[in-house]
Write a structure and sequence with these properties.
The chain is an all-alpha fold. It has one domain (7-119). Helix content is 50%, strand content 0%. It is built from three helices and no strands. Helix 1 (15-21) crosses helix 3 (86-119) and helix 2 runs antiparallel to helix 3. The longest helix has 34 residues, at 86-119. The structure holds zinc ion. The site of zinc ion has 8 residues, from loops.
Length: 123
Amino acid sequence: MPEGKSQNTKGQPGITQAALFGLCPRCGAKGLWAGLGALAERCASCGLEFERHEPRGRGMYLVVLPITILLVLAALKLDDIVQLPIWALIGLWGTLVPAVVTVALRYAKATVLMARLEKEGLL
Ligand SMILES: [Zn+2]
């Protein structure tokens, strides 16, 4: 099998489309996400179950922890370079941190979801 995108998924959304735009990995309809980082129960369009395949528990710490460390290091580095006022720091990190963590969680969950669906032959 070639690296990266495989040929048998043409016409279906990839991990990026699933993670960022919430497209169903099977039919491409919107509605993969019920919350910021929570999968919907099932696809409203094709009925594919998402929640049953949702990765849970400590596995997600492996995604969140390195990102948190990177963000802390980025915050320290930024503070070395420019001395931003406190209101700017609160605004910057208050929006950047939830956004980065949400996108990373969605990427991880979409990756695991698609791997599990593929394994069960549902894609
Ligand atoms: Zn669907």
